[in-house]
Amino acid sequence: MVVHNLEDARDRDLVRRIGEGDEDAFRDLFRRYGPASKALAARIIRQPFLAEEVVQEAFLALWRRPASYREDRGSVRAWLLSTVHHRAVDHVRREEAQRRRAAEAEPGVTIAQDVAEAVAEDADQAEQRVRVRAALEEIPPEQRKVLEMMYFDGKTQSTIAAELSLPLGTVKSRTLLGMRRLRAMLLEGTG
Amino acid sequence: MNGVDVRSHDRLEELIAADVLDGLDEADRLELERSLAAHGECQECNRLLAQYSEVAAGLAVALDPAPLTASAAERLLNSARGERPAHVARDEPHVVRRTRRWLATAAVAACLAVISGVVGWSVAPRPPSGQTAFLAFASQPGTRIVSFQGQDGQHLAVAFHPGETTGWVFGSGLKKPAQGRTYELWPVFLTSV
Q1: How far is A109 from chain B (nearest CA, A)?
Q2: How far is CA B125 from CA B80, B129, B172, in A?
């Protein structure tokens, strides 16, 4: 297991309760990870309204099938954010042509949203953010670039290779080296 | 590790590190799926998956959190109330899964246009978010909608943009499938001759 802490244990308990149909647990998990999920989806999709829809669908998938979470393959947080990421990337790859067309036709148009809830964030999450940002600064820029294009822009390795005019093997090796370094920095002392 | 050669985990690590970022090309992703299946319940595989998933989640956490709309939680709960967690529900969820990604693009007969991206959607009552997204797509200029009227009020609609690789299939009034059964939607790729 990668993360052994009270937060992780609490999340797992929430998933267990969600499996029993506990709406309060579902609401708690959404409140806890909804803002991070939306930030991730919005970073990839670049449309807040659609990002929130993607997040809603991801959480509904958890509600429908809580048993799809496997404790031996990571934390609830990692699994949830991974689900959101998959869906956001799928959306981008599917809709890219349409998204571009819509943005060109109506630049700056956004769908009116109701009043936003304040982000209630655990100190734990804020601390992690600082740590991750510091770790990202530590890895070589060419590796960071590849990781960011992949994760935040939803691009595949071959697409990145083409866009950066690099051999595919170089992109693959930068991915692995960058991820290994991040793993070493972020997971040091755990697992 | 079920007797699996540890050296093979070097290649697996390379694939997993990219997969958790959703960066693998299709051939590599299939290789990863095959390899993981071959390894079975392998502790080393699970360790790599867990660790790199955590690294990917860390990247997400690096972003400033985005405030949710005030109604987000209530909308989610309203959608959820129409359903129940799978292992609590006695009925199997009658949801048609869509493929995570299309395996390949293919030429499709012109008269059919290209419909891909979404293989299927729940034929059960959908949460409002799905309807909203569908309506947003269907209301765009140039959208073509083909309707199929079935018996007893069953209705199926296919919405697509000619020449593009995305489409929606939306059903209503469909009968709830028997326990353990699901509706399935099969894409058929045709090549020009």
Answers
A1: 14
A2: 11, 11, 8
